[in-house]
Specification:
Elements lengths: L14 H6 E11 L2 E10 L3 H21 L5 H15 L1 E2 L10 H5 L3 E2 L1 H14 L4 E8 L2 E10 L2 E5 L1 H4 L10 E3 L13 E3 L19
Parallel strand pairs: 3-4
Antiparallel strand pairs: 1-2, 5-6, 5-9, 6-7, 7-8
Helix pairs in contact: 2-5, 3-5
Length: about 210
């Protein structure tokens, strides 16, 4: 799994695939008396849905880059963040699609996984280095992003800022110390990983990530 989910710079690999996987089942057995391991992966989206989301991403990215050929990373991140926070609503249906880029870019209805998967795919398509940060938000399982500008990485939470529909951003391009400066307490806690499964649950704390 670690090899399969390694960061390659491709928009539909790395963290994109990590967020697609809902779970897996592993069993051992034998084939022609030889030991084998059988792994079954369960996904939140289908291949066809991923391709449909990628087509929307490519169109949006293409339109922006055509009209902004000299855009830097800040411009690219701002564009994607603005699009997602203005056009995607936080899902209350909680279908499988809500957890995917398909939910965000095609249905315009998603939870944090869908927001982050869509933003990851779009930024990677623009050659912006970014990663999905898995952790806790306000005490619940949550995922947000880091993205790179001039060699430094900044936090982004398009899910929570979608509540304001582009009118204001509270969680846009922040650092470790000021990510939650507009709240009364620290709300975001990056996960420290799971030793039993570092591929799906990596250490995302600032020291390691």
């Amino acid at each position: 799994l670690s090899s399969a989910l390694a960061e390659t710079g491709e928009p539909m690999e790395g963290d994109f695939m990590r967020l697609v996987i809902e779970g897996y089942k592993v069993s051992t057995g034998k084939i022609n008396y030889d030991p084998c391991i059988d792994m079954i992966l369960y996904y939140n989206s289908t291949y066809e849905q991923d391709i449909a989301a990628k087509e929307v991403s490519d169109r949006l990215v293409g339109e922006f880059m055509t009209s902004h050929p000299d855009a830097d990373n800040y411009d690219k991140i701002s564009y994607v963040y603005k699009y997602l926070t203005e056009n995607v609503v936080y899902s209350t249906d909680l279908t499988d699609e809500s957890y995917t880029s398909y939910g965000a870019l095609v249905n315009h209805d998603a939870v944090c996984q869908g927001f982050v998967q869509a933003m990851y795919m779009m930024l990677k398509s623009m050659d912006v280095n970014c990663r999905a940060v898995i952790g806790k938000g306000n005490g619940n399982d949550h995922v947000w992003l880091i993205a790179e500008i001039d060699g430094k990485y900044y936090y982004l939470d398009p899910t929570w800022d979608s509540a304001y529909k582009g009118m204001t951003y509270y969680f846009f391009l922040k650092g470790t110390k000021d990510f939650d400066e507009n709240a009364n307490e620290q709300l975001h806690f990056a996960g420290s990983g799971d030793e039993r499964n570092t591929a799906l649950v990596p250490d995302c704390t600032p020291e390691a990530f």
